[in-house]
Protein backbone atom coordinates (compact mmCIF):
# COMPACT_ATOMS: atom_id res chain seq x y z
CA UNK A 1 0.00 0.00 0.00
CA UNK A 2 1.31 3.45 -0.90
CA UNK A 3 2.41 5.53 2.06
CA UNK A 4 0.77 8.78 3.09
CA UNK A 5 3.41 11.06 1.62
CA UNK A 6 3.78 14.43 3.38
CA UNK A 7 7.23 15.11 1.93
CA UNK A 8 8.01 18.76 1.24
CA UNK A 9 9.56 18.00 -2.12
CA UNK A 10 9.86 16.11 -4.33
CA UNK A 11 6.09 16.10 -4.02
CA UNK A 12 3.46 13.44 -3.91
CA UNK A 13 2.00 12.87 -7.39
CA UNK A 14 -1.37 11.46 -8.49
CA UNK A 15 -1.27 7.69 -8.84
CA UNK A 16 -2.78 7.89 -12.33
CA UNK A 17 0.02 10.24 -13.39
CA UNK A 18 2.68 7.89 -12.06
CA UNK A 19 1.07 4.98 -13.92
CA UNK A 20 1.00 6.82 -17.25
CA UNK A 21 4.53 8.12 -16.76
CA UNK A 22 5.86 4.64 -15.99
CA UNK A 23 4.25 3.27 -19.13
CA UNK A 24 5.78 6.06 -21.21
CA UNK A 25 9.25 5.22 -19.92
CA UNK A 26 8.84 1.74 -21.42
CA UNK A 27 6.89 2.56 -24.59
CA UNK A 28 5.84 6.11 -25.43
CA UNK A 29 2.91 6.71 -27.78
CA UNK A 30 3.21 3.22 -29.24
CA UNK A 31 6.60 4.08 -30.75
CA UNK A 32 8.34 1.06 -29.24
CA UNK A 33 10.74 3.59 -27.79
CA UNK A 34 11.00 5.05 -24.33
CA UNK A 35 10.02 8.66 -23.71
CA UNK A 36 13.56 9.25 -22.47
CA UNK A 37 15.04 7.86 -25.69
CA UNK A 38 13.21 9.92 -28.30
CA UNK A 39 14.39 13.20 -29.78
CA UNK A 40 13.09 16.32 -28.10
CA UNK A 41 12.64 17.68 -31.61
CA UNK A 42 10.35 14.82 -32.61
CA UNK A 43 6.67 15.47 -33.32
CA UNK A 44 5.69 13.39 -30.31
CA UNK A 45 7.65 15.41 -27.79
CA UNK A 46 7.00 18.80 -29.38
CA UNK A 47 3.33 17.99 -28.82
CA UNK A 48 4.07 17.29 -25.15
CA UNK A 49 5.80 20.65 -24.70
CA UNK A 50 3.06 22.52 -26.52
CA UNK A 51 0.37 20.81 -24.43
CA UNK A 52 2.22 21.45 -21.16
CA UNK A 53 2.71 25.16 -21.81
CA UNK A 54 -0.85 25.55 -23.08
CA UNK A 55 -2.31 23.82 -20.01
CA UNK A 56 -0.25 26.00 -17.68
CA UNK A 57 -1.61 29.19 -19.22
CA UNK A 58 -5.14 27.82 -19.38
CA UNK A 59 -5.23 26.79 -15.72
CA UNK A 60 -3.84 30.16 -14.65
CA UNK A 61 -6.34 32.03 -16.81
CA UNK A 62 -3.57 33.71 -18.79
CA UNK A 63 -4.32 32.56 -22.32
CA UNK A 64 -4.26 35.33 -24.93
CA UNK A 65 -3.14 37.92 -22.37
CA UNK A 66 0.42 38.48 -23.55
CA UNK A 67 2.05 35.75 -21.44
CA UNK A 68 4.38 32.94 -22.44
CA UNK A 69 4.93 29.73 -20.50
CA UNK A 70 8.38 28.15 -20.46
CA UNK A 71 9.80 24.95 -19.02
CA UNK A 72 13.44 25.61 -18.17
CA UNK A 73 16.33 24.05 -16.26
CA UNK A 74 17.97 25.01 -13.00
CA UNK A 75 15.09 25.08 -10.54
CA UNK A 76 13.89 28.17 -8.73
CA UNK A 77 17.49 28.74 -7.65
CA UNK A 78 18.49 29.63 -11.20
CA UNK A 79 15.42 31.85 -11.51
CA UNK A 80 16.74 33.92 -8.59
CA UNK A 81 19.54 34.85 -10.96
CA UNK A 82 17.57 34.98 -14.21
CA UNK A 83 14.93 37.35 -12.86
CA UNK A 84 17.57 39.91 -11.92
CA UNK A 85 19.58 39.36 -15.09
CA UNK A 86 16.51 40.10 -17.24
CA UNK A 87 14.72 42.77 -15.20
CA UNK A 88 17.06 44.59 -12.82
CA UNK A 89 18.50 47.76 -14.35
CA UNK A 90 18.78 50.09 -11.36
CA UNK A 91 17.03 48.83 -8.23
CA UNK A 92 14.52 46.23 -7.19
CA UNK A 93 12.30 45.71 -4.14
CA UNK A 94 12.16 42.35 -2.34
CA UNK A 95 10.03 41.00 0.48
CA UNK A 96 12.03 38.63 2.68
CA UNK A 97 9.79 35.88 4.08
CA UNK A 98 12.03 32.84 4.25
CA UNK A 99 15.13 30.95 3.22
CA UNK A 100 14.37 30.98 -0.49
CA UNK A 101 13.47 34.68 -0.52
CA UNK A 102 16.75 35.31 1.29
CA UNK A 103 18.62 33.42 -1.42
CA UNK A 104 16.81 35.34 -4.16
CA UNK A 105 17.89 38.59 -2.52
CA UNK A 106 21.50 37.41 -2.45
CA UNK A 107 21.50 36.80 -6.21
CA UNK A 108 19.73 40.06 -7.07
CA UNK A 109 22.34 42.09 -5.21
CA UNK A 110 24.83 41.09 -7.90
CA UNK A 111 23.00 43.22 -10.47
CA UNK A 112 21.94 46.44 -8.81
CA UNK A 113 20.55 48.16 -5.76
CA UNK A 114 18.34 45.97 -3.62
CA UNK A 115 15.67 47.34 -1.30
CA UNK A 116 14.35 44.90 1.30
CA UNK A 117 10.90 46.39 1.92
CA UNK A 118 10.00 43.97 4.71
CA UNK A 119 11.44 40.97 6.53
CA UNK A 120 10.49 38.46 9.20
CA UNK A 121 14.04 37.15 9.52
CA UNK A 122 14.37 38.38 13.11
CA UNK A 123 11.61 35.95 14.15
CA UNK A 124 12.95 33.02 12.14
CA UNK A 125 10.38 33.79 9.45
CA UNK A 126 7.34 32.73 11.46
CA UNK A 127 5.08 35.44 9.99
CA UNK A 128 4.49 37.41 6.79
CA UNK A 129 5.50 41.09 7.00
CA UNK A 130 2.73 43.59 6.34
CA UNK A 131 2.38 47.34 5.96
CA UNK A 132 5.42 47.72 3.74
CA UNK A 133 5.66 50.14 0.83
CA UNK A 134 7.12 49.48 -2.60
CA UNK A 135 9.14 52.27 -4.29
CA UNK A 136 7.40 53.39 -7.44
CA UNK A 137 10.74 53.67 -9.24
CA UNK A 138 11.75 50.06 -8.59
CA UNK A 139 12.32 47.91 -11.66
CA UNK A 140 10.15 45.21 -10.09
CA UNK A 141 8.88 43.83 -6.79
CA UNK A 142 9.70 40.21 -5.87
CA UNK A 143 7.93 38.04 -3.33
CA UNK A 144 7.64 34.36 -2.40
CA UNK A 145 4.03 33.25 -2.14
CA UNK A 146 4.58 30.23 0.11
CA UNK A 147 7.48 29.41 2.40
CA UNK A 148 7.93 25.66 2.49
CA UNK A 149 10.39 25.51 5.36
CA UNK A 150 8.55 27.78 7.77
CA UNK A 151 4.94 27.09 6.82
CA UNK A 152 3.86 30.64 5.99
CA UNK A 153 1.89 31.80 2.97
CA UNK A 154 0.98 35.19 1.55
CA UNK A 155 -2.80 35.54 1.57
CA UNK A 156 -2.77 38.96 -0.10
CA UNK A 157 -0.49 40.51 -2.70
CA UNK A 158 0.28 44.23 -2.94
CA UNK A 159 -1.21 46.59 -5.46
CA UNK A 160 1.78 48.14 -7.18
CA UNK A 161 2.60 50.04 -10.33
CA UNK A 162 5.88 48.16 -10.83
CA UNK A 163 6.13 44.66 -12.33
CA UNK A 164 5.14 41.99 -9.80
CA UNK A 165 7.38 38.90 -9.72
CA UNK A 166 6.55 35.86 -7.59
CA UNK A 167 8.25 32.61 -6.70
CA UNK A 168 5.30 30.21 -6.47
CA UNK A 169 7.35 27.04 -6.30
CA UNK A 170 5.44 25.44 -3.45
CA UNK A 171 1.85 26.57 -4.01
CA UNK A 172 1.46 26.99 -7.78
CA UNK A 173 -1.93 25.74 -9.03
CA UNK A 174 -3.19 25.24 -5.46
CA UNK A 175 -5.57 28.20 -5.05
CA UNK A 176 -7.48 30.71 -7.09
CA UNK A 177 -5.70 34.02 -7.59
CA UNK A 178 -5.89 36.79 -10.14
CA UNK A 179 -2.73 35.63 -11.86
CA UNK A 180 -2.91 38.53 -14.30
CA UNK A 181 -1.68 40.73 -11.42
CA UNK A 182 1.70 39.05 -11.80
CA UNK A 183 4.14 39.91 -14.54
CA UNK A 184 6.43 36.94 -13.94
CA UNK A 185 5.77 33.72 -12.02
CA UNK A 186 8.23 30.89 -11.58
CA UNK A 187 7.94 27.53 -9.88
CA UNK A 188 10.13 24.48 -9.55
CA UNK A 189 8.14 21.46 -10.71
CA UNK A 190 8.97 19.31 -7.71
CA UNK A 191 6.42 20.83 -5.32
CA UNK A 192 3.09 20.62 -7.16
CA UNK A 193 3.72 19.50 -10.73
CA UNK A 194 6.22 16.72 -11.21
CA UNK A 195 9.71 15.44 -10.48
CA UNK A 196 12.68 17.73 -10.02
CA UNK A 197 14.44 18.80 -13.19
CA UNK A 198 12.29 21.46 -14.79
CA UNK A 199 10.95 24.87 -13.77
CA UNK A 200 7.81 26.58 -15.01
CA UNK A 201 8.22 30.25 -15.89
CA UNK A 202 5.19 32.32 -16.92
CA UNK A 203 6.17 35.78 -18.10
CA UNK A 204 4.41 38.75 -19.65
CA UNK A 205 6.47 39.46 -22.75
CA UNK A 206 6.14 43.23 -22.55
CA UNK A 207 8.37 43.45 -19.45
CA UNK A 208 11.36 41.93 -21.24
CA UNK A 209 14.14 43.59 -23.22
CA UNK A 210 14.43 46.69 -21.05
CA UNK A 211 17.83 46.18 -19.41
CA UNK A 212 20.99 47.56 -21.01
CA UNK A 213 23.25 44.64 -20.14
CA UNK A 214 24.04 41.82 -22.53
CA UNK A 215 22.30 38.69 -21.26
CA UNK A 216 23.93 35.29 -21.94
CA UNK A 217 21.68 33.29 -24.25
CA UNK A 218 21.03 30.53 -21.74
CA UNK A 219 19.79 33.09 -19.21
CA UNK A 220 17.72 35.23 -21.57
CA UNK A 221 13.95 34.71 -21.35
CA UNK A 222 13.49 36.16 -24.83
CA UNK A 223 15.81 33.53 -26.29
CA UNK A 224 13.88 30.72 -24.59
CA UNK A 225 10.57 32.16 -25.79
CA UNK A 226 11.87 32.32 -29.36
CA UNK A 227 12.88 28.66 -29.16
CA UNK A 228 9.68 27.43 -27.45
CA UNK A 229 11.59 26.18 -24.38
CA UNK A 230 13.96 24.21 -26.61
CA UNK A 231 17.00 26.46 -26.89
CA UNK A 232 18.79 23.47 -25.40
CA UNK A 233 17.54 19.95 -24.73
CA UNK A 234 14.65 20.19 -22.27
CA UNK A 235 14.16 17.90 -19.30
CA UNK A 236 11.92 15.55 -21.24
CA UNK A 237 10.64 13.33 -18.42
CA UNK A 238 9.87 16.10 -15.87
CA UNK A 239 8.08 18.13 -18.55
CA UNK A 240 6.00 15.10 -19.54
CA UNK A 241 5.04 14.31 -15.95
CA UNK A 242 4.18 17.97 -15.38
CA UNK A 243 1.95 17.85 -18.45
CA UNK A 244 0.16 14.79 -17.07
CA UNK A 245 -0.30 16.45 -13.68
CA UNK A 246 -1.70 19.62 -15.25
CA UNK A 247 -4.12 17.52 -17.32
CA UNK A 248 -5.14 15.64 -14.15
CA UNK A 249 -5.85 18.97 -12.48
CA UNK A 250 -7.87 20.21 -15.44
CA UNK A 251 -9.91 17.00 -15.44
CA UNK A 252 -10.68 17.50 -11.74
CA UNK A 253 -12.19 20.88 -12.52
CA UNK A 254 -9.12 23.09 -12.33
CA UNK A 255 -7.70 25.26 -9.59
CA UNK A 256 -11.08 26.21 -8.12
CA UNK A 257 -11.89 22.57 -7.40
CA UNK A 258 -8.50 21.63 -5.97
CA UNK A 259 -8.61 24.70 -3.74
CA UNK A 260 -11.73 23.29 -2.04
CA UNK A 261 -9.85 20.06 -1.29
CA UNK A 262 -6.77 21.94 -0.10
CA UNK A 263 -8.88 24.09 2.23
CA UNK A 264 -10.50 20.99 3.71
CA UNK A 265 -7.12 19.35 4.31
CA UNK A 266 -5.65 22.45 5.94
CA UNK A 267 -8.73 23.01 8.11
CA UNK A 268 -8.65 19.42 9.32
CA UNK A 269 -4.99 19.45 10.33
CA UNK A 270 -4.83 22.95 11.80
CA UNK A 271 -7.97 22.28 13.84
CA UNK A 272 -6.22 19.33 15.43
CA UNK A 273 -3.02 21.27 16.04
CA UNK A 274 -5.04 23.97 17.81
CA UNK A 275 -7.21 21.53 19.75
CA UNK A 276 -4.65 18.97 20.84
CA UNK A 277 -2.75 20.11 23.98
CA UNK A 278 0.31 18.06 22.97
CA UNK A 279 1.03 20.20 19.89
CA UNK A 280 1.51 23.81 18.96
CA UNK A 281 1.94 25.54 15.61
CA UNK A 282 5.12 27.31 14.56
CA UNK A 283 3.52 30.24 12.71
CA UNK A 284 2.79 33.09 15.11
CA UNK A 285 -0.13 34.65 13.21
CA UNK A 286 -2.75 32.11 12.16
CA UNK A 287 -3.73 34.18 9.13
CA UNK A 288 -0.22 33.57 7.74
CA UNK A 289 -0.46 29.79 7.93
CA UNK A 290 0.34 27.90 4.76
CA UNK A 291 -2.24 25.53 3.33
CA UNK A 292 0.55 23.63 1.62
CA UNK A 293 3.03 23.17 4.50
CA UNK A 294 1.82 22.96 8.10
CA UNK A 295 4.65 23.32 10.62
CA UNK A 296 4.12 22.27 14.23
CA UNK A 297 5.95 21.03 17.32
CA UNK A 298 5.40 18.82 20.31
CA UNK A 299 4.88 20.83 23.49
CA UNK A 300 6.92 18.24 25.37
CA UNK A 301 9.81 16.57 23.55
CA UNK A 302 9.41 13.56 25.85
CA UNK A 303 6.60 12.46 23.51
CA UNK A 304 8.78 12.47 20.41
CA UNK A 305 9.81 8.81 20.39
CA UNK A 306 6.25 7.60 20.81
CA UNK A 307 4.83 10.02 18.24
CA UNK A 308 7.49 9.18 15.67
CA UNK A 309 6.77 5.49 16.13
CA UNK A 310 3.02 6.02 15.77
CA UNK A 311 3.11 7.99 12.54
CA UNK A 312 5.67 5.75 10.91
CA UNK A 313 3.66 2.64 11.81
CA UNK A 314 0.59 4.30 10.30
CA UNK A 315 2.36 4.54 6.93
CA UNK A 316 3.05 8.26 7.12
CA UNK A 317 6.16 9.48 5.29
CA UNK A 318 8.17 12.71 5.23
CA UNK A 319 6.84 14.36 8.39
CA UNK A 320 10.09 15.55 9.93
CA UNK A 321 10.50 19.32 10.02
CA UNK A 322 13.30 21.23 8.34
CA UNK A 323 16.42 21.71 10.47
CA UNK A 324 15.75 25.48 10.52
CA UNK A 325 12.51 24.95 12.42
CA UNK A 326 12.64 21.45 13.87
CA UNK A 327 9.50 19.62 14.91
CA UNK A 328 7.23 18.46 12.13
CA UNK A 329 6.10 19.61 8.71
CA UNK A 330 3.11 18.16 6.90
CA UNK A 331 3.19 19.12 3.24
CA UNK A 332 -0.28 18.87 1.74
CA UNK A 333 0.26 19.37 -1.97
CA UNK A 334 -2.53 18.96 -4.51
CA UNK A 335 -2.20 15.21 -4.92
CA UNK A 336 -2.33 14.41 -1.19
CA UNK A 337 -5.73 13.06 -0.25
CA UNK A 338 -7.95 14.22 2.58
CA UNK A 339 -7.83 10.62 3.82
CA UNK A 340 -4.06 10.88 4.31
CA UNK A 341 -4.51 13.98 6.46
CA UNK A 342 -7.14 12.13 8.49
CA UNK A 343 -4.62 9.35 9.14
CA UNK A 344 -2.17 11.90 10.56
CA UNK A 345 -4.88 13.49 12.70
CA UNK A 346 -5.85 10.06 14.02
CA UNK A 347 -2.24 9.46 15.05
CA UNK A 348 -2.10 12.81 16.85
CA UNK A 349 -5.27 11.90 18.73
CA UNK A 350 -3.94 8.46 19.60
CA UNK A 351 -0.85 10.06 21.11
CA UNK A 352 -3.10 12.28 23.23
CA UNK A 353 -5.18 9.33 24.44
CA UNK A 354 -2.13 7.30 25.43
CA UNK A 355 -0.05 10.02 27.06
Q: Biggest sheet, in brief?
A: 7 strands, mixed
Structural class, by secondary structure, is alpha/beta
Mean pLDDT metric: 97
Helix percent reads 25-40%
**Rg calculated over all Cα atoms:** 21 Å
User: In percent, how much strand structure appears in the residues?
Assistant: 15-25%
Unreliable parts = none
- Ends apart, CA distance between termini: 29 Å
Shape: globular
Count the beta strands. 14
Order of helices and strands: EHHEHEHEEEEEEEHHHEEHEEH
Supply the number of helical segments: 9
Lateral arrangement of strands in the main beta sheet: 2-10-9-8-5-3-4
Structural description of this entry:
The chain is an alpha/beta fold and 355 residues long. Helices cover 35% and strands 17% of the residues. The protein has helices at 15-26, 43-60, 75-87, 99-108, 221-226, 236-252, 255-275, 304-313, 338-353; strands at 4-5, 67-72, 91-96, 113-119, 141-144, 146-147, 152-153, 164-167, 184-188, 199-204, 279-281, 293-298, 316-317, 328-331. The strands form four sheets. Strands 2-10-9-8-5-3-4 form a seven-stranded mixed β-sheet, with helices on both faces. It has a three-stranded antiparallel β-sheet with strand order 11-12-14, with helices on one face. A hairpin with a 4-residue loop joins β6 (146-147) and β7 (152-153). α2 packs across α6 (236-252), α7 packs parallel to α9 (338-353) and α8 (304-313) packs antiparallel against α9 (338-353). 44% of the residues are buried.
Amino acid sequence: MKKHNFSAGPCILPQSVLQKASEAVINFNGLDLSLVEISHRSKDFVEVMETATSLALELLGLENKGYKALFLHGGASLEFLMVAYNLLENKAAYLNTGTWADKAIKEAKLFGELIEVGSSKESNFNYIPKGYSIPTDADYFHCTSNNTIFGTQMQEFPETSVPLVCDMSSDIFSRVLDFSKFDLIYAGAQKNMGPAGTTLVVVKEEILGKVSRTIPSMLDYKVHISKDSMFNTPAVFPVYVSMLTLQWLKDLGGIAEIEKVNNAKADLLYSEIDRNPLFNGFVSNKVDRSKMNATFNLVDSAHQEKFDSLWKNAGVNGLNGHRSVGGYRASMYNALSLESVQVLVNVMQELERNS
